[in-house]
Amino acid sequence: VAVSDEVKAAWNDIKLGKKVRFYLLKLSDDLKEIVVEQKEADKSKTFDDFAAILKTQFINNCRYAFFDLNFKNSEGIEKDKLVFFCWAPDSAKIKEKMLYASSKDALKKELSGVQLEYQATGPDELDIAELLAKCDR
Length: 137
Hints:
Order of helices and strands: EHEEHEEHEH
Oligomer: single chain
């Protein structure tokens, strides 16, 4: 599976531009490349807004995402982390989960500067407290 130039540009945009909250990515309809599906430029959007999209629109479908997470660490210092998300809900078809799992490495090889990788298989795992705990390590 190839990674589209659009995805590479999206990664650089969120990493360097800091003007986008998140990008949602998917496998193209012909399953040959990873493409951008949705962009959220509104920086006031939160992780809960992002999680709500996954829980409602993609509860039965796998997706990747880049998320620019702003948070305060355990010492109260404002931080940013670029999170690479793998969303593979238990309700997705087995073949789709296998395709996303096998193409994840190809995508990660194209991304320099991933600060945290987070995988979720269901709505209960889209928990900001768990994500923040991983960020604070």
